[in-house]
Design brief:
Layout (H helix, E strand, L loop, with lengths): L51 H5 L4 H4 L3 H15 L1
Pfam family, one: CxxCxxCC
Organism: Litoribrevibacter albus
Protein name: UPF0153 protein
Length: about 80
């Protein structure tokens, strides 16, 4: 599955413990990553500054669902279950 451009759920719902440019202490769950632009596209995509966890995330049907809202709900539930 390819990511839905402009979804951004994986950059909002989960916590990220590693440093992100502009968020040196990482990102708490439910907080929008500072590197998402106004179209929910990653400003670090393809750059070496992009956190390893972001590079390793792969979209899959059961996580991403059929809409951006569904992806956000699923990722939030996963985050809460593993926190």
């Amino acid at each position: 599955m390819e990511c839905r451009l402009g979804c951004g759920a994986c950059c909002i719902a989960p916590s990220i413990s590693s440093a992100i440019p502009g968020m040196e202490d990482g990102k708490p769950a439910g907080v929008r990553c500072i590197q998402l632009d106004e179209n929910n596209l990653c400003k670090l995509f393809g750059l070496p500054e992009r956190p390893k966890v972001c590079l390793e995330f792969a979209s899959v049907d059961w996580v991403c669902g059929k809409s951006n809202e569904e992806a956000l709900i699923t990722l939030t539930e996963i985050e809460e279950a593993t926190a």
